[in-house]
Amino acid sequence: MAASTGYQWRRDKDGLGVWEHRGKVAVAGVGHSPVDRRWDGVSMDKTLGAYSILACQRAMDDAGVTPDQIDGVICCDSHIAGGSGGSASQWAPRPYFAPPYDSEWGLTLVNAQWLIRQMRLPNVKFAPTGVPTISEMVGMAAQAVGDGVCTTCLVIYPTGNLEGRYRRGGENADDYARGARQWTAPWGNHGGNDFINIFPHRQYCLRYGGQHDDLAPFVVNQHRNGLLTPWGYNASHNMPQLTIEDYVNSRYVLNPLRLWDCDRPVQASAAYLFTTAERARDMKQPPVYVLNHSQHNFRKRSTQEDLDEIEEWTDRAARRMYEGAGLGPNDVDIFNPYDGYSIMTQFFLEAFQWHGVKRGDAFAFYKGDIRVEGPHPLCSSGGNLGTGRCRTAMYTDSIEQLRGTAGARQVKVRAETALAAFTTPSNGGWIMFGKHPG
After folding, report:
1. Which pTM does this prediction carry?
2. Contact 24, 437 (CB under 8 A)
3. Residues 6+ away with beta carbon under 8 Å from 212
4. Torsion over CA: 335, 340, 341, 347 (sign)
5. Between vectors from CA 214 to CA 227 and to CA 421, what angle results, nearest 5°?
């Protein structure tokens, strides 16, 4: 089984032109596990391993493929809730389970090799290690299939969550913030991330006008779309519809970031089956073609990015995606950017100029009709705010919208192309889907 080392799959440069495999790769299967708030540490049918196997089986069933047909498995090795090193990364409040549960594999950790053994996949030849997160995994899968490295590839993204253990491995589990982290992340990972995202957001409000609570219509609509996503946390746990009043009266996490501006950590897994366009045409579902994928890791001038940097980075990401797909802003029907912090989405919306939105226009756009039934169905997935921090809703919804199987979320506008991402302005990736290969 090949590792990722040495395989040049990334599209992370400016000016690469149209992707050489445009329309020759397709997504043929999607599978989701249930979405829980966290694993209880007891229920063996709800471990991260059990949920990952279930998601894979559902994706394979969706496509109509059998285990012997799978020759590629891409699974993210980092599952958020653990991490390596640090006192708190050892999650267990008691000794490990009796054999065969003598480690965390299958409980809170999953990788390609573990899945291949458990699912008895006999013909896997591509199972990279050190796999990045979902925004890059889908690009890796698309490139691998296009290059002929594999022909039928499962992409699995597990997101684990345990009480008191979110991002509490490695340096985040240390008793003290050491080195540069004493300035950038003194309260652990998300204390630092919250601040880093707030700074350019405040600059945005000063430069273009408006205030933080102008985000309320967008956040409320994300929750509405999430309630229309049957597998998501909000819908499956009967969460009430968020209101404008709920939002503006909610507590601050770190002023001005409110509770509802942040997504909810969850325990879940999702899987996608990538294959050649030719093979996909003979499978159970209508193919959804990959028109381009792109990755980025932009260099900061300092430990704190500012608005100018973020606008430059997101403009470059948009140019790469449009160039590689041979399309422009007017060609994109479904737009599912990242919303893990609500204050990020405006940067993506304006950079990609979806539905004519330019710099400084996002708050006014949010006040318009952005419902799935309306003319501007922004983030029809509900994103992470509406479904939980699965980081996969954006991809699933894009695929379902193009298939015409999004149910109550099905948009009323044209649905022939879709852009999706889990990405920050500084690093991550995008993927463009098409209902047609050309």
Report:
1. 0.94
2. yes
3. 201, 205, 256, 258, 343
4. negative
5. 55
- Tokens in use for 226? 């999430």
Peptide bond into 256 cis (omega under 30): yes
pLDDT in tens, 405-436: 999 999 999 999 999 999 999 999 999 999 99
Task: Please give the full DSSP string across 139-166, using - where no structure is assigned.
Answer: HHHHHHHHHTS-SEEEEEEEE---TT-T
Residues 6+ apart with CB under 8 A from 414: 333
- The alpha-helical segments, DSSP class H, found in 179-240 are 181-184, 189-208, 216-227, 233-236
Q: Where are the beta strands (DSSP E) in 236-389?
A: 252-254, 257-258, 268-276, 288-297, 334-336
Domains defined along the chain, listed by start: 288-434 (3.40.47.10)
Residue-wise pLDDT for 214-271, tens only, equals 999 999 999 999 999 999 999 999 999 999 999 999 999 888 999 999 999 999 999 9
The answer to whether the beta carbons of residues 153 and 74 sit under 8 Å apart is yes
